[in-house]
Write a structure and sequence with these properties.
TBL_N; 27% helix; signal-anchor; 13 strands; 7-stranded mixed β-sheet; transmembrane; globular; 8 helices; alpha/beta
Length: 413
């Protein structure tokens, strides 16, 4: 071979350098789509494809890089990361397989968004992103359902140690993951705002919409991220207060108050809550309303007996499910706009309403209790068509939550 001069070497090197420069933006676009210049991005989160037949509701919620809302459930042979044997923190009422549910098909579906890829949950990545932090789930029993799913997923990589418990039915608990110094807790607060739950003496809830509930707000100095999840308790009879004034009530015919329903006050509760969290600079995930799937009476044999997801054309997101989600999405949008130049924290809607609506097969149904048909079929049997089996569809909510958190982390690097 002949001797190469420095000039010849530079001439050969130049095309390769140009190719490398062209490759960099292609690599970034493929692996990190739609970056923005601020931590709280203002991108479009498309409304579901099936809006209610009456009224044109414009919704512009914001996600970071991926619209998880629209998609379909596809068969997945891999199945869940855990089972009832490997996870010891499943609430008894959601332990469907151990309670004798005979069909296992509900375990083999994954959510496939239309325009992006949703990775499977990686427990080590979650623990790394939350190292030395405290993640708190605040809300009702659906919040607890999602929390317990997360604990089971994380337990495949690190042992959760229960370090605090209080209240009946384990309404206040905290776990510690020593491997990464992560705390994960749950706070029972079914209204988010201050409220007095109904009792035999007072058969309606009392909600104070101008103040958040101290049972969780008192601990905000030690919390780094909050996951909010409520909804079904707002369907109960209630009287609503703002300051010293009564705004009205829902289903309280024996009271001399104006019937106002619950959609607007539901939005007001989120408005009050998000203002407090935004002002404190705490990362927030709002898990949107999770639809129930009762068909007929709560104790009918077939109350929620389906064994596979709905096809997209079978079920529309409408009525109460649509309105509850709408209130949450609008409040997230409003809160983001008020602080869109901030780089101190993150706020996102975990929009699960539509994908949850499509999973009538994922509830415990009669298997909220062990072996309900051990002595033969019964005409009437209690059903749980609200909460989710573990493992089950609720695991997907944590898949999405982790993907959102990973995208948040891109802005720190």
């Amino acid at each position: 071979m002949g001797h190469q001069t420095p000039k010849d070497f530079r001439r050969k090197l130049l095309p390769y350098a140009l190719y490398a420069l062209l490759f960099i933006p292609i690599f970034r676009l493929y692996f990190f789509p739609n970056p923005t210049s601020t931590t709280i991005a203002v991108d479009r989160l498309l409304a579901p494809k099936t809006p209610p037949p009456t009224g044109d509701v414009e919704e512009e919620s914001r996600t970071i890089g991926c619209d998880y809302t629209n998609g379909k459930w596809v068969h997945d042979e891999m199945g869940p990361l855990y089972n009832a044997t490997s996870c010891g923190t499943i609430k008894d009422g959601q332990n469907c397989a151990s309670h004798g549910r005979p069909d296992m098909g509900y375990l083999y579906w994954r959510w496939k968004p239309n325009k992006c890829h949703l990775p499977r949950f990686d427990p080590r990545t979650f623990l790394q992103l939350t190292r030395d932090r405290h993640v708190a789930f605040v809300g009702d029993s659906i919040a607890r359902n999602q929390l317990e799913s997360l604990l089971c997923l994380l337990a495949t990589a690190s042992v959760p140690n229960l370090i605090y418990t209080n209240g009946e039915d384990n309404k206040f608990r905290k776990w510690h993951f020593a491997s990464h110094n992560v705390n994960i807790s749950v706070y029972w607060s079914p209204f988010l705002v201050k409220g007095i739950e109904k009792s035999e003496k007072t058969p309606y809830n009392r909600l104070y919409l101008d103040s958040v509930n101290d049972v969780w707000a008192k601990d905000l100095d030690e919390i780094d991220m909050v996951v909010l999840s409520i909804g079904h308790w707002y369907l109960h009879p209630a009287v609503f207060y703002y300051g010293d004034s009564v705004l009205g009530c829902h289903s309280c015919n024996d009271k001399n108050h104006t019937e106002v329903g619950f959609y607007d006050v539901y939005g007001m509760a989120f408005n009050t809550t998000l203002k407090v969290l935004v002002n404190r600079g705490i990362d927030v995930i709002v898990t949107t309303f999770s639809p129930a799937h009762f068909e007929g009476d709560w104790d009918s044999l077939d109350a929620c007996s389906k064994t596979k997801p709905f096809e997209e054309t079978e079920k529309n997101l409408e009525g109460m499910d649509y309105e509850m989600r709408k209130q949450e999405i609008e409040q997230v949008i409003s809160a983001k706009k008020s602080v869109e130049k901030s780089i101190n924290f993150h706020l996102e809607a975990l929009d699960v309403t539509k994908l949850a609506l499509m999973r009538p097969d994922g509830h415990p149904g009669p298997y909220m209790y062990p072996l309900p048909f051990a002595n033969g079929k019964r005409e009437r049997v209690p059903n749980d068509c609200v909460h989710w089996c573990l493992p089950g569809p609720v695991d997907t909510w944590n898949d999405i939550m982790l993907d959102i958190m990973k995208r948040w982390n891109l802005y720190k690097s």
